[in-house]
């Protein structure tokens, strides 16, 4: 239900970045199909939780995103950050 609602909201958006705690451990077939059907990519490839799961995601239709995760004190979730390359920038 959540993915269907999200799909209706993002269908015609450009320059889309969605980030958040999706509480979805592992890649599921339904989630992967959602990514493909909506021409978006999930950019977090490292664990974002102290137990080793990738729960905090960054989803976008932008091609030049670079992401990373970093363990931080006082929480079981890692810092999730993304860098967007500007046209003409040298990174």
UniProtKB/TrEMBL annotation:
InterPro entries for the chain: Endo/exonu/phosph_ase_sf
Domain of life: Eukaryota
Name used for this protein in its record: Endonuclease/exonuclease/phosphatase domain-containing protein
